[in-house]
């Protein structure tokens, strides 16, 4: 009998569209943290090199609905799906949404390295920190 994997993980990248990317990033994080906690979704939202990279994970329906909302959000364009798979358990279940970078790019890279230090290499490949 095949075991059903109850969680979905999506990793995508997109380009920000606004004039104040930092303010948009903070607004997206605030909304994500509020909504994702209710929906059982966790993950990481990274902005660097002129693009967003986000990992969403959680219940299948919640992740799909969240990604559909993101695809309609005017703060994103050129969305590219990097990974979409079923997983046994969330990798970052303790966070509603970890947000990066910090105020200093070097600090942000170090924070991302720490957040991803025990993550599956398949996840780390999508979040360049050097």
Could you walk me through the main structural features you see in this protein, from its secondary elements to its overall organization?
The chain is an alpha+beta fold. Helices cover 37% and strands 32% of the residues. It is built from four helices and five strands. The protein has a five-stranded mixed β-sheet, sandwiched between helices. A hairpin with a 2-residue loop joins β2 and β3. The radius of gyration is 14 Å and the shape is globular.
- The order of strands across the largest sheet is 4-1-3-2-5
Radius of gyration: 14 Å
Low-confidence stretches: none
Distance between the termini: 43 Å
- SS element count, helices: 4
Q: Name the quaternary structure.
A: single chain
Let me know the average pLDDT. Answer: 80
Which class of secondary structure composition applies to the elements? Answer: alpha+beta
Tell me roughly what share of residues is in helical segments.
25-40%
List keywords for this structure.
37% helix; 4 helices; five-stranded mixed β-sheet; alpha+beta; 130 residues
Explain briefly what this protein structure is.
It is built from 4 helices and 5 strands; from the N terminus they run βαββαββαα. It is α+β, with helices and mostly antiparallel strands.
Fold topology:
Elements lengths: L6 E10 L4 H19 L2 E7 L2 E9 H13 L3 E12 L10 E3 L4 H12 L4 H4 L6
Parallel strand pairs: 2-5
Antiparallel strand pairs: 1-3, 1-4, 2-3
């Amino acid at each position: 009998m095949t075991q059903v994997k109850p969680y979905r993980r999506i990793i995508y990248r997109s380009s920000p569209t606004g004039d104040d990317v930092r303010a948009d990033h903070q607004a997206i994080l605030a909304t994500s943290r509020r909504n994702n906690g209710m929906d059982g979704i966790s993950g990481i939202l990274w902005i660097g090199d002129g693009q967003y990279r986000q990992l969403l994970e959680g219940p299948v329906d919640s992740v799909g609905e969240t990604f559909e909302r993101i695809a309609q959000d005017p703060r994103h364009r050129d969305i590219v799906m990097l990974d979409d798979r079923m997983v046994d358990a969330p990798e970052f279940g303790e966070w509603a949404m970890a947000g990066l970078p910090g105020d200093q790019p070097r600090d942000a890279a170090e924070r991302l390295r720490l957040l991803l230090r025990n993550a599956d290499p398949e996840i780390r490949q999508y979040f360049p920190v050097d």
